[in-house]
Amino acid sequence: MARLVAFFAICSLSTSIASAGNPLLVEGKVYCDTCRCGFETPATTYLPDAKVKIECKNRITEEPTYTIEGVTNSQGEYSILVKSDRGDDVCDVVLIKSPDPTCAKPSAGRDRSRVTLTRNNGMISDVYFANAMGFISDEPLASCDEILRQYQVPDEQV
């Protein structure tokens, strides 16, 4: 039994040492909800130069433990390096600011994305994907009525 405990302790220690200098990468997208429907549609545009941040808090005390900001590229995509495993924390990617003043209000329920940033979860990749987050356009596009008809279920199927 003592050998088994020692084996697991050595394995755990070697995993911790191996991952200490190996950052995690968080990737995601930021969009403008041009139809004001709460999800991505064919009319959705992706926002370059949108600001986001990763904020991590202690699971028990909810005190902030780590924060880092990022900016989206020309396709509305961001990649943020997190320097260490955050296994004891609860982490969210959060919208900060839209570059488009006509699409600057964060979409309720799509303004943050929870990410589990630890190697102690069976994942073999150092890349973590966050759900897309969005801002809501001040006015829907004229083409949105037609686009949203695609999502309606005919009465006979309800």
Describe this structure in words.
By secondary structure, this protein is α+β, with helices and mostly antiparallel strands. It has one domain: Immunoglobulins (Immunoglobulin-like), CATH 2.60.40.10. The chain has two helices and ten strands. The chain has helices at residues 2-20, 144-149; strands at 24-33, 45-46, 51-58, 64-71, 77-82, 89-97, 105-106, 112-115, 127-129, 133-136. The strands form two sheets. Strands 1, 2, 5, 7, 9 and 10 form a six-stranded mixed β-sheet that branches. It has a four-stranded antiparallel β-sheet with strand order 4-3-6-8, with no helix packed on it. The longest helix is centred in the first third of the chain and has 19 residues, at 2-20. The termini are far apart. Residues 4-19 have low confidence and may be disordered.
Summary keywords:
single chain, 158 residues, alpha+beta, Immunoglobulin-like, 4-stranded antiparallel β-sheet, Allergen BRSn20, signal
Distance between the termini: 60 Å
Give me the secondary-structure category: alpha+beta
CATH-derived topology: Immunoglobulin-like
Shape: elongated
DSSP summary, beta strand count: 10
- CATH top level class name: Mainly Beta
State the share of residues found in helices, binned by percent. Answer: 10-25%
Largest sheet: 6 strands, mixed
Question: If classified by CATH, what would the architecture be?
Answer: Sandwich
Give the low-confidence spans: 4-19
Order of helices and strands: HEEEEEEEEEEH
Q: Tell me what portion of residues adopts beta-strand conformation.
A: 35-45%
The radius of gyration is 20 Å
Total helices: the number is: 2
Number of domains: 1
Mean pLDDT: 85
CATH superfamily: Immunoglobulins
Signal peptide: 1-20
Organism: Solanum commersonii (Commerson's wild potato)
Keywords: Disulfide bond, Signal
InterPro entries: Allergen_Ole_e_I_CS, Pollen_Ole_e1_allergen
